[in-house]
Every structure is written in C-alpha cells, then in structure tokens.
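hey so i finally got around to running the thing on that chain from the lab meeting. sorry it took forever, my laptop kept dying and i had to restart like 3 times. anyway pasting the input first so we r on the same page abt which one it is
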Amino acid sequence: MTNQVFLLMKVHYEKTGEFLSSDRLIQMNMIPQYIVDGIMQFDYYLDERRRVLA
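ok and heres what got predicted. didnt touch it at all, straight out
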C-alpha cells in the first residue's frame, strides 16, 4: 500500500504539478501509516529528481 500512495502522489504531481494532501489521501481511505511512508518515499523521489536535474 505504501507504493500505491507513492504512485498516486507521483502521478498526480506529474499530471498537475500539485501535491496530493494527506487529507485527500485520508479521504481516499488510505491507512495513515501508509500515507506517512508514501509521503517519505515521494519526498525522496523529489530530492533525487532535483539532484539529477541540477
């Protein structure tokens, strides 16, 4: 489920340029611990992406 949260956030960001909020993820019935883990994974993804593009 962590990967599902990460992928939802990544796809939404790539399509809209906006971040999915944790409130929106909770409304989608995601488990809070999976949300935290998915956000951490997404944050790492963004850091790596910025590093590569720099």
